[in-house]
């Protein structure tokens, strides 16, 4: 899809559809007033009859009957003017684009949405770009039938002020990189488990590397044994697929070396503590954290910030094969702490333990890990918001600030010492499961055992890694959540 930013009389632009914006319970916006004049009052009538209410995401398609160069006008509701945010623009654009695609639109144009609500034109340009790319995303790789519609291939953003164009163009470029990274993560996560094995994840990392010039090293089982990665090896025992430990390096200079660690569990059957079969297929997405890291690394390499970033992805399946680890087994991750495996389904923390130890050995700081870690986090936040946990408030704050910019909702939970008591074991230093209660926090406390004093933040995306239906810029299936926030955070640290 191509994006352009131009200044021109909106209604002289040749395209299949033009998007103008309207708010709830207000008079016509500048863009609607102009369109209404060009269409001899047609929009005014629709407002009067109550067909156009301006609710957030409402799309009314009007044929212009040659009164404009564009064949159709899409009046896009943005909700109450005083409540409008950049993230709402991102979502509304996505819905509007899907609607236009359904109508067969190939070339679309849009005014700078939210101008009457005083949103920043560059931020709107970026959000418009991201909303369009993320909202039009489809995963059709394994569908033989051709899509009904060709899809939108060009979007023109019409700026009202020539002086804004250069900045808006830069913002569009940023939006393209951000959104494409999100889609790369989604592609990996939506891929079935038999086609996104640990080796396939490694191949994806190598592909991202060859596209962008980052350094990628893929380590195998022998190396893990040398390193003493007892957690990752313990989980991998039950699977016929060889585990991989993927390291991605971006060298942008500057003093810092930030660590991004992603759970790369390419299929979580639960292992011997087998999961129920209902919805088990969703566990192909248990590598969402790893996908976010790989995709974010690619985007960071495209954006070239002055900072060093190292991505670590421990990748394995969790399967109940004959050699699988068993409840009651004791494992020893890299830092020598012994772990009693109470439940083989609490495997994410076992593979992350080694990756976090390795991050420490590389002296990465701060370290951010991303994982579909606990059903408990999903019970807390539903599918709306990801959980954040940290041993360092500065690190947490820079992540939370980044998440505000990207619209990926995140909320921090406490790490009181009392939760540590819940993972003490009778037979080893710690166990991999606490009690039934506070499961997202005890999981985070488990991870904290392997980060030492390094400033560290953990994001639990178990509830947010996929959605059941199209919703704004999220499309049924993988969300790619945290990819854009990781990029944003790294840029802010540079
Ligand atoms: N991958 C799951 C967590 C998960 C649940 C991700 C729902 C996405 C959606 C994780 O490995 C797991 O199975 N966790 C267990 C831990 C329990 C055994 C302590 C859980 O949350 O039930
Ligand atoms: Zn599990
Ligand atoms: Zn898992």
Q: What's the average pLDDT?
A: 97
The helix content, as a percent range, equals 25-40%
Q: Count every beta strand, where a strand is a DSSP E run of 2 or more residues.
A: 20
CATH secondary-structure class of the largest domain: Alpha Beta
CATH fold type of the largest domain:
Aminopeptidase
Structural class: alpha/beta
- Described by the principal axes of the CA atoms, the overall outline is elongated
Radius of gyration: 24 Å
Distinct ligand kinds: ligand BES, zinc ion
Which homologous superfamily in CATH is the superfamily of the largest domain?
A: Zn peptidases
Q: How many domain units?
A: 2
Model regions low in confidence, pLDDT < 50 over at least 5 residues: none
CATH architecture of the largest domain: 3-Layer(aba) Sandwich
Outline the biggest β-sheet.
9 strands, mixed
